[in-house]
Predict the 3D structure of the following.
Amino acid sequence: MTTRKQIILGAYLGGVNHQTLWGLPESGSQIDFSSFEHTARTAERGKFDFFFLAEGLALRERGGKIFDQDIIGRPDTFTVLASLAAVTEHLGLAGTINATFNEPYELARQLASLDHLSGGRAAWNIVTSFDAFTGQNFRRGGFLDRSQRYERAAESLALVRELWDSWADDEVVADKASGQFVRSGDVGAFWHSGPQFDVRGRFTVPRSPQGQPVILQAGVSPQGRDFAAASSDAIFSPFTHLPEAKQYYADIKRRAVAFGRAPQDVKLLPSGSFVLGDTESEAQEKAIWVREQQVTPQTARVLLELVWNRDLSDLDPDGPLPSIEPDVAAPAFIQGRARLESDLQVWADRLRAVAAEKKLSAREVVIDQFTRAEFVGTAQQVADQIDEFVQDDGSDGFIVGSHLVPTGLDEFVDKVVPLLQERGSLRADYTGTTLRDNLGLPVPARVREPARV
Amino acid sequence: MSDTARLHLAIALDGAGWHPAAWREPHARPSELFTAGYWADLVRTAQDALADLVTIEDTFALQSSRFEGPDERTDQVRGRLDAELVAARLAPVTRGIGLVPVVTVTHTEPFHVSKALATLDHTSRGRAGWQVRVSAGASQAELFGRREFPSFAPPIDLDDPAIAPHVRETFEEAADAVEVVRRLWDSWEDDAEIRDVATSRFIDRDKVHHVDFEGAQFSVRGPSITPRPPQGQPVVTVLAHSTIPYELAAQAADVVFVTPHDDEGARQTLAEVRDAEVRVGRSGLPLQVWADLVVVLDTPEESGADRKARLDAATGEPWFTDAVVVAGSASVVADQIAAWHQLGYAGVRLRPATLPDDLTLVARDLAPELRRRGLTRPAYDADSLRGLLGLPTDVPNRYATAR
């Protein structure tokens, strides 16, 4: 019997961006718990590995005013995930949490608590920010230099892991007869001194069911790739076209091996949306309609303002791209939204090249460049696309989501999931109890440096 | 009996109960203290007691028999989970009862605290509260490595220049933190989300506000990333033992938990709290003052006093704590509660000496006794914690009214 690679599936709930269509009659609340519960239960019905929640710690602004045309507003990540633990049984609960505006002691405590409260289903997508705009919401402000962000992330993660390992697996004895509750008098002791953190004391949370909650990261630059390959369990791959994806896949696995890990110990997961139809042409038509809804003329202008860094209110989106050059020196016109390219001139030139090559209007360029990768077709075609991509080592799976919240995932689970299961590429039922079990990841042995208090 | 005169009932949950030997009791579940199922069972029992709310104890410090810093003991419960996340885990599986975790403010970000509690209010559909707590000790500061705090131990002498400014500053910072959290809760007006397809506007940006707080320890611009919680302002509580914390409560909280030991102390404490309200110029509703009582109730087999003696024997010493320990029958304990209610206490927060035993006894004997006397509510009759507590359920938004 040939064993097929098992597809890893994550489910994201669309939120703060132009991809989620809030204006449709069937679109639901972005904050009511029922939306999160519905999506998570649907993902669990489809035997997904995990539910994924993004984060942004400041409302976006345009020209100093709060952004009003996309969805804004989201819940606290940890709190929603802990509540979702109560209404799901097997689904991993993954959250994006910023290592710049959170201290390791608190992060380690919250993640380990979530792992206990969910019976071993917690995952952390570690991100950093060097953004002074976001910093205005926090005690320390925008203290972190861009060049230090990997250093901060790496040391934060290392320290969080030391804290998770500060209790032995068998530390809690709880023997009523002898009266011994914990094994050691210095339970939870830790000491860490580094360039970013100088901390010591006792950690309060016993080692959690996964030992170490699952770590997710994104990494594209050589430094980012190394950090991710060395220290994460899964990586968000930005590549959804097979040739680049295969290269990236091979590169990350090679780097992981160089760090002494097995290639299968790090999973690669691009994200993508989907549009299904009863026929291919119906799906294609719907996909075009969705893109036009996502990139309204107004949205096209705003996304170009992100690149040009200036007010483009007068731009005709059906005409050409702005002839003026980006204002690279001005403070950010759009705040709180990541720039996909740090050099605005390079970015603008790339859009111009795309426009010239494909003969596109400004809005069409935006649709071409800012649309998430998507699977479009009949359920059978989408199942084929996903399965082939994974079997060809373009990735180990996908994080999928819909332009429609909260019911968009239903269609995928009802129609695509059974086809993937029929092929033997997706589990018919959960086999493990923890997220690590379901992802096929080993439980890391406890690493204990002698406490030097 | 009117709502304002009704006696409120809270259950304070911590580990295996408040007595250090509680975890060794036959019904104790010490190996399950870090599981969701244990906590869910406790809160459901508190729900059976028709308690207004449960508080869930927390601190960044590992439990210790010392006032400051860890000890080396292995014979008592050590370890705890993050209380706010425990509350969040319980929200979907409980009904009616308020969920009030301790969330500390000294080493945390007010922005995170605000959105966490706002989200708890969303996932519990209006049942969130907050017990504000400070972390004044040096050993907790070392967990974060960002600030150096002086070491000190009780009795805390507020005339000692090495300590007094630090304690005052810690509480002033806590008041600032609550102010920021409250402003952020209001930073979205209730009707900010408009989804106006015609004008392509998801929100009315004039109804989402920067909070622009500037204080001695931090500045926070806002707005929150989380829309206004269902209660508008979730319920804020403080446990307080002396003047400075009374003032924090008077300034920032809806409910204060206090620890009188006898009738005379109960009168005096109440007067001190009312003085603190005058000093800080509290406006609006007076602070609700609730008394903390550790309860060790009679079982059919064993009196509360005998149980207390047996628990003390297990640790080898009589146990004292900040709150009064009341041992006896449901009727005796109800007498004391009724007497303090007469003095002007709006509620009591019961700390079960053992879990689940004393909580089970509260639900089976004491809570029904209080209901029989007409002191407490006969059923959950409001759909929010504010509603249960008789606090206004339509809280004006400071930014809407300022417009």
Summary: The first helix of chain B runs from residue 36 to 48.
